[in-house]
Predict the structure.
Amino acid sequence: MFQNIGEMLALLWRTLQALPLTWRHRHKVYDQLFEIGNASLLMACILSLFIGGVIALQTGPLLAERGLSGYIGGIVGNAICKELAPVMMSILIAGRIGSAMAAEIGSMRVYQEIDALRTMNINPVHYLVLPRLVAISCALPILVVFSIMVGWMGGALVAVYNNQIGISFQAYFSNLRELVDLGKVVNGLFKSFIFAVVIGVVSCHQGLQTIGGPRGIGRSVTKAVVNSIVLILILDYFVTRFLMYLD
Amino acid sequence: MNAPVTTQQGVRVTVRGLRRSFLGQPVLKGLSFEVDRGEIFVVMGPSGSGKSVLLKHIIGLETPDEGEILIEGESIQSPGVMDKYRMAMVFQSGALFNSLTVGENVGLYLSEHRLQAPDEIARIVTEKLEIVGLRGQENRSPSELSGGMKKRVAIARALVIEPQLILYDEPTSELDPLMAVTIGDEVIKLNRRIRVTSIVVTHDRDLAFGIADRIALMADGQILTVGKPAEVRSNPHPQIQKFLTADFNHNKERTPL
Ligand SMILES: Nc1ncnc2c1ncn2[C@@H]1O[C@H](COP(=O)(O)OP(=O)(O)OP(=O)(O)O)[C@@H](O)[C@H]1O
Ligand SMILES: [Mg+2]
């Protein structure tokens, strides 16, 4: 995986150079956006509701025992927007969309469609990679916005209705508002943007690298998903350090 | 990714000392030949002799280990040469874009390079599909087509480019005899109409001798002979005669081609 990082950076660079052509390929971007939204929005919301809920469930009783239940909104709010929403949504999208990208491009590679594009003087990076990368980089942060809001709600529901915690909605959200500012939300969105680029580049690169028949496609899909998740989790640490340094 | 601008029809192709191995296994072992402007050049040879690999080198999908390919005297490796000429390839498998409809496949070159307005593209697509006998199939998906229909869509897609060099990899291998004749005629007609240089890879001896200006016989990564159809047919080389006259044993009395 790590020997490919150079190639992936080169692919990213070639895609960035093609960015001015995005307008020309906007219909493909819309198609991809629709695909991502359609495939993931509902699942993202359900997932986030439960993640918010479980954080409240884990922290709430501990805080309540010590008479700190007033802080639960801030703790859940921070954990969701800075860490859990960006990372969990990225992992979900790596599985749901990264795999589809690798499979689609991989099968185009195996069945010579990419060769056909090249003989027609159509650059596969412009035609295939650019719209996907632009779409996922826009869609994932948007999805994370939904995820953050639903996650907070999930935390609130547990904080209010779990009888070991039992605080009011007002107490939850006023503490959340006190401890979570817009900067922290932007922080999480920035992370998810980086992760989106990782998923897009890793998956498209894996797709373009596919060799062999249907088995090769399967291998590419697995690699795209696993490598994306590994890179996301490693990068998460460094991006977090970097953002803390900026603060 | 701009569309090429040259208007001159038919290009001269020179292949010089072309060698290529895959994983240490030589596939092309030093090929040299020249195809004239506007010529129909047929390459025949047994399966696995490297014909498809040769075509991929000519259109720049593969890079030679040794030797070079020249178009109008310029190496295709040098920058800008591939963009200067319009070229098309009909893949052995068709290589249609499965996520697009038949019509979008055929019109893709024009729409991606923005060479025509959408309704003009639709008109050209209809016209080219009609040529290959697929009128009214624009909205079907490639996965709904038979092998031969896919091949014909691939040919229509190549015609749209109005190429100066067109490479056909087994254009008739999945077609019934009538359609094979139609496609053969179309290769000739296109060649007459826009003086396109055509390189046709085929096993089909009828097609080869029916359309070729010259024929090259390939075996095992090398060229056995190149010449006018009559010259090739009268070549006494045993391997050539065997390839040209092979037939079912119970049919021996049939006159060879
Ligand atoms: N990408 C590749 N990697 C490894 N070997 C290859 C590759 N492409 C072709 N070959 C080998 O090159 C040889 C020639 O293949 P090619 O497809 O050119 O044959 P062909 O003459 O077109 O045969 P057919 O008439 O059956 O289509 C074969 O032995 C094939 O295994
Ligand atoms: Mg072949």
